[in-house]
């Protein structure tokens, strides 16, 4: 009996220490929860420091920093919105916002944001967070896809090194990959394509050749069509892997990080990666390893490529939208945007921040990224309802099979267009 | 007895199969340990080694510097211990009644228990969130414990029912004949024989709660209340990029409590089973 009493007392003790958190004392201070997805140390430090600076300067509006995770943000936000417990300020990516914006969970920011911020970020970036009539997020960081190359292999092979002013064309890229593979010898390849997420790579780089895949009709309905321009980039990648064998089949299912050991060992001369991967390369590259950042190949539309910028939104249910918008205005001042960009190894969307000299140095390829920034466009699927299902059920397996040589262009077209339009139609019934 | 003995080659085969199974089970853990002690350049080596060439504790230092691992571990421990104790306290009498008094109600109850195991997380999470919100239990470890208890209860009940059925009813009848009342019989005869089952069930509930991620992610808003699995995801970036060294270091530390609890309780499971075998 005594044991049972001890047990009950122990449990009571455990649980009394775990009571529900109150919303804060009634002291007239506005409390905002800011859920950030920053995860690398440098980036987390900058975010925390900015929150600290805000709190020091604004004792009446206190921001609490909460760290979320990219890995689970969609499910977590969805549940929080449904339960009315979402953070006031939400960090996410523009391609994850459509359902939340159309669902009425995110505030329209147009009446809340300052003229300065609205004018500082270019219209093409605002397009990424415009859903229907409203703007539901501030796009603030973005990353183009670039080619990270082994400088020694590239220079010793004698091939022309591209610049943002004189990039390779897709045709030239294919030829150079053949030259490099020949120079490098057996068992080595000019380029490794990490295509674990083949859809975003294909669509975003596809813009350079004038591809767009999604077409909006006069009635507002979106359909998929695979034009000749849409096939340039996927066709080139397939040729590299299947026809020329200048890119290994083995990395097709890999993530970007998985290709780095082979890249450092000189097995691959080039790896197309997101701009932020430079941080990982800088940290992990063996001593003496020399690398350089090249622009992705250009097509009929130049260096254009699609991006889904990181965004900051305000929850529609937040009782303190004005205060949250004031925090965003502070957080995204040009000098702060530069700090955030450097911390995340990404590019700011703001034109003033982008002009900062620290983002135009040759070191770690910042200048190449900054030069490409002007060409970045909203990712083609940005506001398409039903895109996540089309991507997961139709496009991802179709592209994977196409790149590995299991299906041909005709079958790819049938799946993306015929099967894909069936999926999209379900989301657009009126 | 001799019929049960395997021949030499068969016995060797059995040991080889067992060894292969153990290697299969141990591989991820050993790889995790190895990764936790590797410096960044070794993590990106084309020819990774089992034993770090230049072992370092830097990943552990970085993991502790960047994330509040101890606080998160404390939260996880509170949630897991409370969930295990409550689940066992509720499931034990329930299992006894359901196993001993078979009838339509008991069959329906056990049927429902089996069906409830099929519900996916996503189906229950939003209604559950709303219920807890109305009870003011969102953002509280108490609310999380309640969820863990409910979540582990069906399987705990199922496990314990098996143990109760394994205790011969004749023992209870003999105790009754000797003059023991119902409570006395349960406490002095049945409960000790159920010991291994209770320990195994508690272990199951503890490990389930210790490792659980999604409910904790959704229910706990404040950083100071987050549990270890949630904090571990802070080492993950977008598109599967991870801070591998600190992640491995933190994940290795996160597995230790489960191993310790299992090591401590394992003897009780085995010992209790043998004690029961002798009595029956």
UniProtKB/TrEMBL annotation, chain A:
Keyword Membrane: no
UniProt keyword terms in alphabetical order: Signal
Domain of life, per lineage: Bacteria
PROSITE patterns (alphabetical): PROKAR_LIPOPROTEIN
Matching InterPro entries: Bact_solute-bd_prot1, SBP
Signal peptide from the UniProt entry: 1-22
Pfam families from the UniProt entry: SBP_bac_1
Keyword Signal: yes
Matches recorded under PANTHER family: ABC TRANSPORTER SUBSTRATE-BINDING PROTEIN, ARABINOSE-BINDING PROTEIN-RELATED
Protein name in the entry: ABC transporter substrate-binding protein
Organism expressing this protein natively: Streptomyces viridochromogenes
From TrEMBL, chain B:
GO CC annotation: plasma membrane
Pfam families assigned: BPD_transp_1
Residues in ABC transmembrane type-1 domain copies: 73-265
Compartments reported by the entry: Cell membrane
Residues forming coiled coils: none
Biological process, per Gene Ontology: transmembrane transport
Membrane topology: Multi-pass membrane protein
Origin: domain of life: Bacteria
InterPro entries: BP-dep_ABC_trans_perm (IPR050901), MetI-like (IPR000515), MetI-like_sf (IPR035906)
UniProt cross-references to CDD domains, sorted A to Z: TM_PBP2
Keywords: Cell membrane, Membrane, Transmembrane, Transmembrane helix, Transport
Kinase is among the record's keywords: no
Membrane-crossing residue ranges in chain numbering: 12-33, 77-97, 109-132, 144-164, 185-210, 244-265
Family: Belongs to the binding-protein-dependent transport system permease family.
Name this polypeptide is given: Sugar ABC transporter permease
Source organism phylogeny: Bacteria, Bacillati, Actinomycetota, Actinomycetes, Kitasatosporales
């Amino acid at each position: 009996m005594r044991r049972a009493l001890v047990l009950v007392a122990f449990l009571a003790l455990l649980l009394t220490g775990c009571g529900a958190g109150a919303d804060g004392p009634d002291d007239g201070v506005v409390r905002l929860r800011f859920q950030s997805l920053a995860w690398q140390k440098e980036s987390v430090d900058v975010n925390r420091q900015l929150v600290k600076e805000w709190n020091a300067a604004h004792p009446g509006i206190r921001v609490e920093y909460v760290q979320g995770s990219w890995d689970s943000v969609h499910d977590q936000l969805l549940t929080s919105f449904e339960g009315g417990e979402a953070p006031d300020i939400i960090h996410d990516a523009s391609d994850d916002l459509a359902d939340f914006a159309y669902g009425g969970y995110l505030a329209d920011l147009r009446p809340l944001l300052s003229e300065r911020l609205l004018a500082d970020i270019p219209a093409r970036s605002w397009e990424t967070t415009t859903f229907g009539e409203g703007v539901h997020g501030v796009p603030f960081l973005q990353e183009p896809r670039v080619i990270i190359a082994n400088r020694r292999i590239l220079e010793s092979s004698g091939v022309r090194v591209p610049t943002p002013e004189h990039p390779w064309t897709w045709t030239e890229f294919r030829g150079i990959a053949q030259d490099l593979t020949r120079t490098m010898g057996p068992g080595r390849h000019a380029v490794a394509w990490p295509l674990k997420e083949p859809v975003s790579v294909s669509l975003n780089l596809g813009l350079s050749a004038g591809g767009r895949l999604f077409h909006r009709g006069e009635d507002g309905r979106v359909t998929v069509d695979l034009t000749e321009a849409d096939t340039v980039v996927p066709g080139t990648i397939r040729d590299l892997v299947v026809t020329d064998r200048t890119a290994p089949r083995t990395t097709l299912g890999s993530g970007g990080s998985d290709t780095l050991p082979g890249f450092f060992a000189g097995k691959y001369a080039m790896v197309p990666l997101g701009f932020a991967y430079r941080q990982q390369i800088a940290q992990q590259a063996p001593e003496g390893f020399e690398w350089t950042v090249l622009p992705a190949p250009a097509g009929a539309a130049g260096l254009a490529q699609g991006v889904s910028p990181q965004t900051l939104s305000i929850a529609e249910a937040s009782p303190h939208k004005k205060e949250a918008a004031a925090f965003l205005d502070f957080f995204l001042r040009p000098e702060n945007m530069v700090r955030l960009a450097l911390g995340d190894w990404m590019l700011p969307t703001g034109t003033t921040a982008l002009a900062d000299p620290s983002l135009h140095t040759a070191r770690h390829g910042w200048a190449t990224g900054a030069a490409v920034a002007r060409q970045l466009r909203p990712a083609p699927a940005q506001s398409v309802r039903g895109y996540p299902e089309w991507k997961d059920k139709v496009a991802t397996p179709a592209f994977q099979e196409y790149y590995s040589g299991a299906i041909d262009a005709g079958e790819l077209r049938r799946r993306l267009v015929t099967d894909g339009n069936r999926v999209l139609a379900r989301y657009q019934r009126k | 007895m001799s019929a049960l003995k395997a021949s030499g080659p068969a016995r060797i085969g059995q040991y080889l199969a067992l060894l292969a199974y153990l290697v299969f089970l141990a591989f991820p853990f050993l790889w995790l340990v190895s990764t936790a002690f590797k410096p960044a350049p070794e993590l990106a080596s084309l020819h990774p080694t089992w034993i770090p060439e230049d072992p370092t504790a830097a990943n552990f230092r970085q993991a502790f510097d960047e994330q509040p691992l101890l606080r998160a571990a404390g939260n996880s421990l509170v949630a897991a211990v409370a969930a295990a104790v409550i689940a066992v306290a509720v499931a034990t009498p329930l299992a006894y009644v359901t196993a001993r008094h078979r009838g339509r109600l008991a069959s329906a109850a056990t049927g429902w228990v089996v069906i409830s195991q099929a519900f996916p997380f996503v189906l229950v999470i939003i209604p559950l969130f709303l219920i807890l919100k109305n009870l003011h239990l969102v953002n509280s470890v108490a609310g999380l414990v309640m969820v863990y208890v409910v979540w582990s209860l069906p399987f705990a009940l199922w496990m314990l029912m098996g143990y109760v059925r394994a205790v011969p009813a004749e023992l209870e009848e003999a105790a009754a004949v000797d003059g023991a009342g119902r409570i006395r019989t349960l406490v002095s005869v049945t409960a000790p024989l159920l010991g291994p089952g209770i320990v195994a069930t508690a272990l199951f509930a503890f490990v389930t709660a210790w490792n659980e991620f999604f409910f904790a992610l959704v229910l706990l808003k404040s950083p100071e209340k987050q549990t270890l699995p949630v904090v571990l995801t802070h080492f993950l970036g977008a598109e599967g990029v991870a801070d591998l060294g600190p992640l491995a270091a933190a994940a290795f530390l996160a597995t230790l409590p489960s191993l310790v609890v299992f090591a401590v309780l394992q003897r009780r499971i085995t010992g209790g089973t043998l004690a029961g075998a002798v009595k029956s």
